Amino acid sequence: MASKRDDGSTLVAENRKARHEYFITDSWEAGIELLGSEVKSLRRGQSNIAESYASIEDGGIWMINSYIAEYPGAALFQHEPRRKRKLLLHSREIVKLAHGVERKGMTIIPLELYFNARGRAKLKIGLAEGKKLHDKREDAAKRDWNRQKARLLRDKG
């Protein structure tokens, strides 16, 4: 289900594995071209962006493999749940992303799907580089050490 945040936006879906699997170098906020039934389904919190990614095609950026459930009230005008959705960005942002993707190992991944304070559906996308196994192990070790350090400080203090 969707959850309210402090800045007035409502979080619909989050890619929680993204920060574990990738180094996020930069992020942008993009609009999404949606159909009416997709917006209604998003307002009900029925979406998943965990396995999705973005690619640059025909001079635009498209989100691929994102899931937005069908809306039961839209009997005749139903949408396809895993269709390609166009992301709305300025041309200079598209150029920056295109240059990033051309570099070795960089990809565009969605981080969060939310409604902003004005009620518009937005997608936070990140330019990411895949982590190696040893990087994931280092992150886990740091996380464990910080947790243990906080526990020790709490017990002593």
For this entry, give a set of tags:
8-stranded antiparallel β-sheet, 10 strands, Small Protein B, Chain: A, 36% strand, 4 helices, 157 residues
Provide an overview of this structure.
The chain is α+β, with helices and mostly antiparallel strands. The chain has one domain: Small Protein B, Chain: A (Beta Barrel). It has four helices and ten strands. The protein has an eight-stranded antiparallel beta sheet. The chain has a two-stranded antiparallel ribbon with strand order 4-7. β5 (53-57) and β6 form a beta hairpin.
CATH topology: Small Protein B, Chain: A
Strand content: 35-45%
Number of helices: 4
Helical percentage: 25-40%
Find the CATH superfamily: Small protein B
Secondary-structure element string: EEHEHEEEEEHEEH
Q: What strand line-up does the widest sheet have?
A: 1-2-9-10-3-8-6-5
Helix-and-strand structural type: alpha+beta
